[in-house]
Amino acid sequence: MLKLSKKVEYGLIAIRHIASLNNQISTVKEISERYAIPVDVLAKVMQKLTKGKLVVSFQGSMGGYSLARSADEISVMNVISVIEGAQVGIAQCFTEEEANCSIHLNCTIKNPLSKIQHNLEDVFNTMKVSEIV
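Given the sequence above, the corresponding C-alpha cells read:
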C-alpha cells in the first residue's frame, strides 16, 4: 500500500491549519498541541517548508509561520517534494534509478504501473491545499 510518510502528513496538517486560519501566524507549539504532533519533528518539517518557500517564518515573541503564497497555489505535490526531496513513487523504479532494480530487464509490470504513477502524480499536482481546508 502506498503510504505517505509521517513528516508529509505533519506538513500537510500544518499547512492546512495555517490556511484554515486565513493565514494568520501560527506557532509550532500551537499546531503540535492541537494535533498531538511531536514538537521536535514538526519544527524540522516547518524548517523544510520554510526552506522550500511554502511557508514564511516570523521570528520573535509574536513569531510563527504563515503561508508564503495562497493555498490555491500550493499543491499537495509541492508539500511532498519539499519534505521528501523527491516524488512519490509506487515502485522502486519510479523513485530511484532503474538500474538499482534487480529485475528491471525482465519486468512485466513497469508499463502498466507507469499509468498508475502518472495518475497519482496528476492527483497530487492538481490537488491544492485550499481543497483540503
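The two ends are 25 Å apart (CA to CA). Try to locate this feature in the C-alpha cell string yourself.
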